[in-house]
Amino acid sequence: MASNSKSSTPMERYGYDVLLGSIAAFYVIMVPYTKVEESFNVQAMHDILYHRHHLQNYDHLEFPGVVPRTFIGALLVSILASPFILAMNLLHLPKLYGLIAVRMALGCIILSTLRFFRLQVRDKFGKHVEAFFVILTAIQFHVLFYCTRPLPNILAFGVVNLAYGYWLKGNFFAALNCLIFATVIFRCDMLLLLAPLGLMLLLMKSISLWEALIRCIGIALLCIGLTVLIDSIMWKRILWPEFEVFWFNSVLNRSSEWGTHSFHWYFTSALPRSLLVAYPLFLLGILLDRRILPFVLPIFFFIILYSKLAHKELRFIISSVPIFNLSAAIAATRIYNNRKKTFWKLLNFIMLGLLLISLGCTIITFMASYNNYPSGHALKDLHQIGHLPNNTNEQWVHIDPFSAMNGISRFCETEYPWRYSKEEEIPLEEFCHRNFTFLINEHRYIAGFQCLFSINGFSRTRLEIGFPPLLLSLKVYNSNPSIMASYGTMQRPGTSSTSPPLTQPDDLKDSARKKRNDFKLLCPFNIPISPEAAAVRIIRNLRYFGLYYTLFVWIILFISLVPRRKVSLILLVVMTIVTSLYLTLLHALPNSVVLHRIIDKRLVLSLLAIGTAVELILTRAAIHLVVSLACGIPIVLVHAVLRVSDDLFVGEEACAAGELVPLVHGKTGDVDIESPASV
């Protein structure tokens, strides 16, 4: 083993980590904001890094939340991220980069524990199972998206990964001690996993009851002492946070006030969405390999026990995903190794199709998540347009509770002259009597203020005939406060340039109905009336659907590289991440002279495309690139020729008559209420 590890290249040792880490980093860069579930740890990390020992300035003392949480996880992540925060302060970068830094640090911790588990998978089940385990994890959305989110569930998830690794390694007491640590400090509901696992080890005589009591009780008391010591100091009262959480959620059953689901919800909704193709594969893996059954049974009972609680969320059972992925990887390996046989060849074809569908579902879920933090985008846009250069007065921004729950944290705030207030329960009619300059609020009309802009928020997905076939519907305003779909930024009249008159809600609703009725009469495809019209349509569709076309060819290339070209696959993902980061910088810095004028965007993207092609050729994947382009380009061209939208008819008629026509969509006005917008 030692000689093999020494002779292996860095790419072979850390290639899987680069792949998973690149995807997780992409999620962080594209969706840096956080929600209310993450608010405590996010604010705690901010206060530890920026307020340090000045506890009186900490956010949790003013907004304690429903139940207290431990500071131990926030302390660990803050220590790891502190050098990056120091460098950012020296460079005078916005605090939003600090949020990215702490999330990256948390992601490194979680992925390191996942690496430990993966290495034990390789030692016990082989390299092929390890490879499919990584592939399944990479094309799933929730594990890599959540691994950088400072939730108590994710902090516990990292410790549970260590427990799984020790479990596979045969170090049962270390596995139990890890689960005890996670239960006592991060999530009390990990007791529902600890109990089935401990009981199974006792029934299989892997451990003895007396020895388990001696070894585990001491660890439990040590963990209780640690959390009581640290959290009593931070909360300024004697406190064991997870005991209060257990009392609130389980004994009082108050968690049901946040919504309930049926008993089978985890099995019929949460697991299918989180596992995707791994859901049927993990069931097949149990049948194909008896070794996996003892590992799956405790996880299965963990979910059954959790299903007894009425309040359910996917993040509650995210700790079960690695074991289910392991079982699915065993099934995928068996199918792939026997793919030359007739029956297994059919299963292999079905599996590849399901992998492609899973990747598409992950992309759609990511697009929805990107639009799921509207107030964070609202505050960012306000900082860009709200401050007048000649105005040195303080700019007071009030953030209502719904905005605070959907993207805004202390990391989103900037320096003077901006000041922020999250004061709650202020009547709408009282805002005009307060000294607020701007409001970020769910309501569109507030006396004494005018709406500067609104931010779209994710509402739902819908099917449509055409390309793309599944679109995201974005709502600008929703009168039901329990469903936040948009946030308007308002300013007192006279403090900025005049804004256009607002359309009344009734007019907006009528406009939305009219557009929906008109849409039903249009066919998204037809044959161009002339070669010139076809050329215009191709150019316009290449610009309008360029992202989807590129993504379509990328998926074909990705699937072709999956079976054997591991190095090429990793390099493709890395170049994709680099390209995405560059495009993100272009969007985030619209006024940068260097990015938009000195450096030509087309030149940079061309160099990145050439670099990707060269990497694929050097790693002997040129045939995959050629086949992907040969399959993708004809389909793209056919769609570009036939796809038409309702505002293309005039242009094509003018083109047929020899007139000049615009090739880029014009900018639209405000989005109507309940009118769907594609992403």
Automatic annotation (TrEMBL):
Major enzyme class: transferase
Annotated EC: 2.4.1.-
Endoplasmic reticulum as UniProt keyword: yes
Topology class, membrane: Multi-pass membrane protein
GO molecular function: dol-P-Man:Man(7)GlcNAc(2)-PP-Dol alpha-1,6-mannosyltransferase activity
GO cellular component terms listed in the entry, alphabetical order: endoplasmic reticulum membrane
Catalytic reactions on record: an alpha-D-Man-(1->2)-alpha-D-Man-(1->2)-alpha-D-Man-(1->3)-[alpha-D-Man-(1->2)-alpha-D-Man-(1->3)-alpha-D-Man-(1->6)]-beta-D-Man-(1->4)-beta-D-GlcNAc-(1->4)-alpha-D-GlcNAc-diphospho-di-trans,poly-cis-dolichol + a di-trans,poly-cis-dolichyl beta-D-mannosyl phosphate = an alpha-D-Man-(1->2)-alpha-D-Man-(1->2)-alpha-D-Man-(1->3)-[alpha-D-Man-(1->2)-alpha-D-Man-(1->3)-[alpha-D-Man-(1->6)]-alpha-D-Man-(1->6)]-beta-D-Man-(1->4)-beta-D-GlcNAc-(1->4)-alpha-D-GlcNAc-diphospho-di-trans,poly-cis-dolichol + a di-trans,poly-cis-dolichyl phosphate + H(+)
Assigned keywords, A-Z: Endoplasmic reticulum, Glycosyltransferase, Membrane, Transferase, Transmembrane, Transmembrane helix
Superkingdom of the source species: Eukaryota
Keyword Transmembrane appears in the UniProt entry: yes
Family matches, as InterPro entries: GPI_mannosylTrfase, Prenylated_rab_accept_PRA1
Subcellular location per the Swiss-Prot or TrEMBL entry: Endoplasmic reticulum membrane
Task of the protein: May be involved in both secretory and endocytic intracellular trafficking in the endosomal/prevacuolar compartments.
Name recorded for this polypeptide: Mannosyltransferase
Biological source species: Lithocarpus litseifolius
